[in-house]
Amino acid sequence: MSNLTPDPVIIIDFGSQLTQNIARRVRELEIYSEVHPPRETAAEIRQRNPKAIILSGGPASVFDPAAPTVDPGIFRLGVPVLGICYGMQLMAHLLGGKVVPAEIREYGVTPFHPEKEVSSLWRSLADQSPVLMSHGDALLSLPKGFRKTGRTRTTPVAAMEDGENRLYGVQFHPEVTQTLHGTDFLRTFLLEISGIRPNWTLSGYIERQIASIRETVGKDHLICALSGGIDSTVTALLCHKALGDRFQAFYVDNGLMRMGESEQIIRDLQGLGLPLTPVDAGKIFLDRLKGVRNPERKRKIIGKTFIDVFWSEALSLPVRPRYLAQGTLYPDVIESVSHKGPSSMIKSHHNVGGLPKKNPFRLVEPLRDLFKDEVRRLGTQLGLPETFIKKQPFPGPGLAIRIIGAITPERLRMVRESDRIVREEIGRQAIAATLWQYFTVLLPIQSVGVMGDQRTYENVVAIRAVSSQDGMTADVAELPHTLLAQLSHRIIAEVRGVNRVVYDISPKPPGTIEWE
Question: pTM for the full model?
């Protein structure tokens, strides 16, 4: 983590999939935040001069022998500490309270009853405000000096505080949208209780990064691989502004893109004035993926093949470059690099940890400290058109992870054609502007059907459409039944080899947005 801003809010990560949501909510309040692993000592944390500390949730129980813990000295640093879910339980456990397995485990949205008469922290919450709960343990007795400040129907102690020492705990998750007034709660804690003044905006970030790239690269050359997404495009624009003709970008077509997408990406990127070399490598990727069914193996093969192709092209340049720019974002770092903390890794990221140890290039990562929404705002400041800013996320491995099981040219055709229909039909509807992603997935099963009075035994396609603010949580899109019927009709009629269409109604969590 680069020391972009002094006096951060330090977030200790105990493995929650929502840890980065906490960091984003804090930054939305224009307060700089950093995620740190729990192994850091109180002395190490003190060196960053934090204005507040937040203990995240996590999947462990304080009773587990290998449960993550924290240096109890952080409670004596004299800065406000907020424990969320597991963070509250750990705080209570370390300070002498008693945590026990809950008689009734609490999962989902439930009304919260704040005790406003004993705490000023609840001025933004009405009685029975909906909050997201997700815990199997509960607090039986409070640590010395603490008092109960909130409850739910099944959790008698759903919030606690030691106002004198500015130590606070909540069993619910204020960082998610399901907690209706969660951001207001965090605002009260950070601005009023902790006395923090806003210290984080993107103004001046472009100039700082351009200067940093120039200083790092010096008189050498830098290369970048472009995917056409917002992250790599903003990275390339910053690098091109910094270095001019000492920067070269490549677009590697892996043969796993949507219908007509590679051609459109090349036109769009060249239209931005970026020096771009397109590379058609589809056959190489498909040959290496032949017969591979495991999704993690797919990702690893695609990542390695991409590096092989990219490096071969880059090292054939007249002047050998010494630097490589990547569009790595802060969530990539949090999720993929285990030494940042115990966050459970759901799947590997193609931007982090994928380079071999014998990397001939030195890395330049100008977006490493930013979240996706911050990158979009940066893109706006760089003059990117709305088509780039609002582009739906698309996975680095492409359609390889939207085909469950082995990848063949025929299965690629089916997912491409069905995806085109879904994008056409939903794209014409007003609801499209409210959706995070919509696409199709080819399932590894076949079903019996009747088409033209003939028995068929063909493939099944799933439609996936979700709404989300950040991709960390997602709700199923409530597509009109008439629209779903039209999608099913067109896919079955137009995509040869498909005789059944289903709609995925799984939210995230427990499902992920992509199927692999």
Answer: 0.73
